[in-house]
Design a protein that fits this description.
Largest sheet: 8 strands, antiparallel
CATH topology of the largest domain: D-amino Acid Aminotransferase, Chain A, domain 1
Distance between the termini: 51 Å
CATH superfamily of the largest domain: ATP-grasp fold, B domain
Number of strands: 22
Strand order of the largest sheet: 13-12-9-10-11-14-21-19
Strand content: 25-35%
CATH class of the largest domain: Alpha Beta
Structural class: alpha+beta
CATH architecture of the largest domain: 2-Layer Sandwich
Radius of gyration: 21 Å
Length: 449
């Protein structure tokens, strides 16, 4: 087992990793920017190293400075968390060259899933259902138009190096194709320095359902059931739950088996997520694989009583997984609490938290790195906490989440708590009648609390 792990991340996920490391008897090193010197992950790590100023490019994305921190603290492994360098194959390669264990998949496995077109081709060969679309990247407008006619509108154009909804455009009819084509390529180039575009059939009213997976260095893989991440705004997840209210036992078996096929196709090592779109008829299609821990991993942990960070570390240290497939025994919901003003287009709301009270009680969990007096910096993602509840049924979980949200007090900045309060009281949500476009048709601002 590792003696000392450097966490190449910040905020709540860094603190989450530190906690598991302490329970495993592993020393920890926090890295931080000057903007994060007062964050709790810095306070609770065994050692902390400032690696640069606030901008990510000069701190959390600065590989030479991170490796220098590894050297001066004598860490023998790096946990990348999520975001930043978590799915950066070049960084994983640097770790390997320096003899530092990257807690995650190999550089080759990251590359195989990092490019969406390559990932899709790999999944087709493995027999995993994929959305009908282009066989590769589209370079010319005319053949792209011809393919769209063949597939049938609506279609969606996607950046091959994309993420977070950037470089993604839905085309509803031929007359708007050229305009959306140019927009998608331009946005992809600006965001990823890669304007590669591919096309897929656009699945209307889909569910976004992901399967949590784990694979070890001995060729074993298993799944740990599903999470429903369909409540989204501009392709950004806001609420996650397990099990999905849309799931059936038969569909869970099929999707779990497909996710394991995906792992075996690349000999996957580590904890990851295979993401699917599921249409209204419960046909499912591979979307992408995230070769890292997810923000919403907590939901799975609660329904199967399993520490996924611990599993990640054990796999990286060469321990075998059980090979057992896990199924949810409880129901869990997670609300992402962001420092955003929901009444002004979810505008970021950085600043000083003057008062902070997190809810408590049976089956309530809050993962956060903030506290009263903490100043939220404007340089990073606006998520400040994750509120997770667990109960025996979905109905009980929603009621518990309502109660917990009512107890959640954050003053000094705006947060998304009022949005989640309204969502938990929405009848369609309570009945499980929603899809990824749910928020497009719901005027939450008009709901009185």
């Amino acid at each position: 087992m590792f003696k000392k792990i450097l966490i190449a991340n910040r905020g709540e996920i860094a603190l989450r990793i530190i906690r598991t490391c302490k329970e495993m008897g592993i020393k920890t090193v926090a890295i931080y920017s000057t903007a994060d010197r007062d964050s709790l992950h810095v306070r609770f790590a065994d050692e902390a190293v400032c690696i640069g100023p606030a901008p990510s490019a000069e701190s959390y994305l600065n590989v030479p400075r991170i490796m220098a921190a590894v050297e001066i603290t004598d860490a023998d492994a790096i946990h990348p968390g999520y975001g930043f360098l978590a799915e950066n194959a070049a960084f994983a390669e640097v770790c390997r060259q320096y003899g530092i264990k990257f807690i995650g998949p190999t550089p080759e496995q990251i590359r195989s899933m990092g490019d969406k077109m390559t990932a899709k081709e790999t999944m087709i060969q493995a027999g995993v259902p994929c959305i009908p679309g282009s066989d590769g990247l589209l370079t010319d407008l005319k053949p792209a138009l011809e393919l769209a006619e063949k597939i049938g509108y609506p279609v969606i154009l996607k950046a091959t190096a994309g993420g977070g909804g950037k470089g993604m455009r839905v085309v509803w009819e031929a007359s708007e194709f050229e305009k959306q084509w140019e927009t998608a390529k331009r946005e992809a180039k600006a965001a990823f320095a890669n304007d590669g575009i591919y096309m897929e059939k656009f699945i209307e009213e889909p569910r976004h359902i992901e399967i949590q997976v784990a694979g070890d260095q001995f060729g074993k893989a298993c799944h740990l059931s599903e999470r429903d991440c369909s409540i989204q705004r501009r392709h950004q997840k806001l609420v996650e739950e397990s099990p999905s209210p849309f799931m059936t036992p038969e569909l869970r078996e099929k999707m779990g088996a497909a996710a394991i096929k995906a792992c075996h196709a690349i000999n996957y090592e580590g904890v990851g997520t295979v993401e699917f779109l599921v249409d209204k008829y419960r046909n499912f299609y591979f979307m992408e694989m995230n070769t890292r821990i997810q923000v919403e991993h907590t939901v799975t942990e609660e329904v199967i009583d399993f520490d996924l960070i611990k599993e990640q570390i054990k796999i990286a240290a060469g321990h075998p997984i059980s090979g057992k497939n896990y199924f949810p025994e409880m129901h869990a919901l997670e609300c992402r609490i962001n420092a955003e003003d929901i009444f002004h287009d979810f505008r970021p709301s950085p600043g000083k938290i003057t008062s902070f009270h997190s809810p408590k009680g049976h089956g309530v969990r809050v993962d956060t790195h903030v506290y009263a007096g903490y100043s939220i910096p404007p340089y990073y993602d606006s998520m400040i906490a994750k509120l997770i509840v667990r109960a025996r049924t979905r109905e009980e979980a929603i009621l518990k989440m309502e109660r917990a949200l009512d107890e959640f007090i954050v003053e000094g900045v705006k947060t998304t708590v009022p949005f989640h309060q309204r969502l938990m009281r929405n009848e369609d949500f309570k009945k499980g009648n929603f899809h990824t476009g749910f928020l497009n048709n719901w005027d939450f601002k008009s709901v009185e609390l």
